């Protein structure tokens, strides 16, 4: 038995915090590097520079990069490569049907 002041169940806030901590990529390690680079899943990097192939998360960051690294070239946002638009998610496993059956 537990004491009077101790809650017997987890709160919804605590469960939501645990789910968020378990499912959100905080950016550490090899998985975080791949996510930041935008190469595998689209990641945080949305745009790619057409001149040097560096990635940036948004248009403002890409414009800052362009002004700093390519000052002699005119900035044209239509030439930027959108990594999120070109990424297609593929499923390797077949999805099970009713109650986990693999009927075809």
UniProtKB/TrEMBL annotation:
UniProt key word Nucleotide-binding: no
Biased composition (Basic residues): 1-11
SUPFAM superfamilies: Expressed protein At2g23090/F21P24.15
Region described as Disordered: spans on this chain: 1-48
GO cellular-component term (any): cytoplasm
Subcellular locations according to the entry: Cytoplasm; Nucleus
Extent of Basic and acidic residues compositional bias: 32-48
Keyword Zinc: no
Keyword annotations of the record: Cytoplasm, Nucleus
PANTHER family recorded: GEO09665P1-RELATED, ZINC FINGER PROTEIN 706
Name the record gives this protein: Zinc finger (C2H2 type) family protein
Lineage: Eukaryota, Viridiplantae, Streptophyta, Embryophyta, Tracheophyta
């Amino acid at each position: 038995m537990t004491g009077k002041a101790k809650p017997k169940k987890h709160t919804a806030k605590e469960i939501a915090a645990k789910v968020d901590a378990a499912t959100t990529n905080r950016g550490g390690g090899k998985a975080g590097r791949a996510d930041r680079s935008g190469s595998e899943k689209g990641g945080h990097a949305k745009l790619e520079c057409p001149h040097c192939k560096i990635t940036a998360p948004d248009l403002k960051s890409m414009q800052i990069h362009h002004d700093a690294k390519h000052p002699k070239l005119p900035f044209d946002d239509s030439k930027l490569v959108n990594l999120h638009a070109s990424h297609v998610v593929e499923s390797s496993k077949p999805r099970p049907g009713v109650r986990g059956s693999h009927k075809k």
